[in-house]
Amino acid sequence: MSLVTIDWLENNLNKVKIIDCSWHMPNVNRNANQEYIQEHIPGAIFFDLDKYSDLKTDLPHMLPNSNKWEKIISSLGISNNDKVIIYDNSDVLSSCRCWYNFIYFGHNPNLVSVLDGGFKKWKLEKKITTNNKTTISKSKYKSQENKELVKDKNQINTNINKKEFVVIDARGKERFEGKVPEPRKNVRSGSIPNSLCLPYREIINENNTFKNIAEISKKFDEIIETNNENKVFSCGSGITACVLALAYSLVNNKYSPTIYDGSWAEYGKI
Questions:
Q1: What is the pLDDT, as a whole number, of residue 226?
Q2: Measured distance CA(237)–CA(132) in Å, rounded
Q3: pLDDT band at 26 (very low <50, low <70, confident <90, very high)
Q4: Is 235 one of the annotated active-site residues of the chain?
Q5: Are 12 and 120 in the same domain?
Q6: Are residues 260 and 190 in the same domain?
Q7: What is the 3-state secondary structure (H, E, C) of the chain?
Q8: Final residue of a structural domain among 73, 89, 124
């Protein structure tokens, strides 16, 4: 159950742990943490996607090591057997990256879901919000890395000739084709050789809900055979790659989300 509905969460607020993983593009003048402080779903905990990454690299949003992940999740009061619901107030559906991180570090995939439509839809449906500070009791979270769910630059380069998996880029086509500059400094325009492009917005409705399975499946079929499970997703910095990974998990429930963590921020680095 990669997605839950607004009504489902409203009926289960006291039975789950809720994470606000809002994050905004660097060229957008918004502060996700301040927005959370001002208004969030009752019981929600803020997950700082920049802070809770590997801070020893200059690449954005890279996976932390397992010890750091355990400390982060323990500090948020989340246990291994908790049902975790993640939402965001972001146009890039950053909640999907947090969903991926939990699965990578061994949380039961059946116990971690994204709120379909996020905070935007929650508010449109006039559900309750609060600015009350959420009380957290620290836990002792234990992680178990699934290292096969991430690819590095060497593996991406080796695969260009070996073609053991297909890289699908979630960025817009103009960025993929190198027709517009990248939003990050010191990153050239273009894309990974032999990669394919499926802009993540094409599988998302205007209200930030995911399109239905038939529509998502059709989008994948337009670029590649859907039953090919060897898919690795990439994007600008590892955020929207996870939107496609979640979307594909809806189409193929045997698929484990796999991404190129460095994405174009690493591959296109000048």
A1: 57
A2: 32
A3: confident
A4: yes
A5: yes
A6: yes
A7: CCEECHHHHHHCHHHCEEEECCCCCCCCCCCHHHHHHHCECCCEEECCCCCCCCCCCCCCCCCCCHHHHHHHHHHCCCCCCCCEEEECCCCCCCHHHHHHHHHHCCCCHHHEEEECCHHHHHHHCCCCCECCCCCCCCCCCCCCCCHHHEECHHHHHHHHHHCCCEEEECCCHHHHCCCCCCCCCCECCCCCCCCEECCHHHHECCCCCECCHHHHHHHHHCCCCCCCCCEEEECCCCCHHHHHHHHHHHHCCCCCCCEECCHHHHHCEC
A8: 124
Q: Report the pLDDT value the prediction gives residue 227, as an integer from 0 to 100.
A: 61
Indicate which residue of 96, 98, 235, 242 is catalytic.
235
Confidence check: pLDDT of 189 > 80: yes
Tell me the mean pLDDT in the region 12-36: 93
Q: What pLDDT score does 29 carry?
A: 87
The pLDDT of 61-65, averaged and rounded, is 95
Q: Say which CATH number the domain at 195 has.
A: 3.40.250.10
